């Protein structure tokens, strides 16, 4: 089967579609790419959609990229399936125009209307009407809709749920490589030391990275660290966004938090792999309760122990491979961090559990299996709706 990955996606900042493409390749499919990145991240695209006066700039960019995409696509072999990458709400329409009779798979990882509400850019009115119309048009243009959790499948309009396939976000291969390299470096540095029995371990090193959106709950993290009061935990916070100021205001002032506004995508896996614990999300909004964030898949692949919120999709996906705490509860997060700082045997066990889950379930070949079944005509069973 020949698959053409199509659109203005950027795998350096959003690796999701690259994971799907690698997974399809691992299942023997011939995968090519027709890609001209738009040059806008999620925040930039959503902000434009929520601020109509900025839409002309988006349209100008799209016109340039679409012309280049169309010109390139005409020169490529005719595909059997088109895969439109993440943030493809408009790209899927171009794909439908260019490939009228070809099945189109839309990676609908985010809803424009849902994301605008979560980021407090739009809560109702004409903006939400416009964003919902954009979502609906994108879904209508697709043959198969890919989402990341069952909760997101059920959040689709009822007419679209039956043709939706759940493909977890997963982790790219280079995150696994970073984890293996970090483990080898630690072993080479001191092969005789067992981290579970080391009588004088250093501080527990913890990392969080993201866009500091409400979904992620960054202020919960820094409140938790402040509550630890020097309990041997050092935290690295990477990124910036809406909740940056609130997170910094809640943080302790004893030097236990390191702030990095930005880390190049190519350097991030190795940096994360150098930490003991990778934090997930701790927000309490509706969207936060429906997702399994990319950072838990990536952190597991990097060999870190995981702590994230105890929500239905995360509990189902991670099981015993993560420490789960109630959303929005800094005291519970602080207790979980204190336990891992004091019990290095438990820390080592959680690292091994996360890595084992990643190797078994989070790699490209594993996460893409439901889509492979869909494309081969063996549709996976649709889970029943919870009563």
Automatic annotation (TrEMBL):
**UniProt entry tagged with the keyword Glycosyltransferase:** yes
Domain of life (superkingdom): Bacteria
Any idea which UniProt keywords this protein has? Coiled coil, Glycosyltransferase, Transferase
Please list the GO terms describing molecular function.
glycosyltransferase activity
Query: Which segments of the protein form a coiled coil according to its record?
Result: 333-360
The protein in question is named: D-inositol 3-phosphate glycosyltransferase
């Amino acid at each position: 089967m020949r698959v053409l990955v199509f659109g203005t996606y950027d795998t350096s900042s959003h690796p999701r579609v690259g994971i799907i493409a690698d997974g399809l390749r691992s299942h023997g499919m011939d995968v090519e790419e027709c890609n001209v990145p738009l040059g806008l991240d999620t925040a930039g695209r959503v902000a434009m959609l929520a601020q109509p006066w900025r839409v002309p700039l988006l349209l100008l960019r799209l016109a340039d990229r679409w012309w280049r995409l169309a010109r390139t696509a005409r020169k490529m072999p005719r595909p059997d399936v088109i895969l439109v990458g993440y943030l493809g709400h408009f790209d899927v329409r171009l794909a439908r125009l260019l490939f009228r009779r070809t099945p189109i798979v839309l990676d609908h990882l985010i809803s424009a209307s849902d994301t605008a509400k979560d980021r407090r850019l739009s809560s109702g009115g004409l903006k939400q009407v416009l964003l919902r119309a954009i979502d609906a048009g994108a879904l209508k243009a697709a043959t198969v809709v890919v989402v990341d959790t069952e909760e997101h499948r059920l959040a689709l309009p009822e007419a679209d749920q039956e043709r939706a396939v759940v493909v977890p976000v997963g982790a790219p291969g280079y995150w696994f490589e970073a984890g293996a390299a970090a483990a080898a470096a630690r072993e080479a540095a001191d092969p005789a030391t067992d981290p579970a029995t080391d009588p004088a371990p250093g501080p527990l090193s913890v990392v969080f990275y993201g866009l500091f959106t409400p979904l992620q709950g960054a202020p919960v993290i820094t409140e938790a660290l402040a509550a630890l009061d020097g309990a041997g935990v050092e935290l690295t916070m990477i990124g910036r966004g809406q909740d940056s100021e609130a997170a910094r205001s809640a943080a302790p002032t004893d030097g236990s938090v390191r702030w990095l506004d930005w880390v190049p995508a190519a350097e991030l896996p190795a940096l994360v792999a150098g930490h003991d614990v990778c934090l997930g999300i701790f927000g309490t909004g509706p969207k936060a309760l429906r997702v399994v964030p990319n950072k838990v898949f990536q952190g597991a692949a990097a060999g870190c122990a995981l702590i994230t919120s105890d929500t239905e999709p995360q509990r189902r996906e991670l099981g015993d491979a993560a420490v789960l705490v109630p959303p929005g509860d800094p005291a519970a997060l602080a207790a979980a961090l204190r336990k891992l700082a004091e019990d290095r045997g438990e820390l080592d066990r959680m690292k091994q559990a996360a890595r084992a889950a990643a190797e078994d379930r989070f790699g490209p070949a594993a996460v893409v299996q439901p889509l492979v079944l869909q494309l081969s005509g063996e549709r996976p069973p649709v889970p029943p709706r919870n009563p």
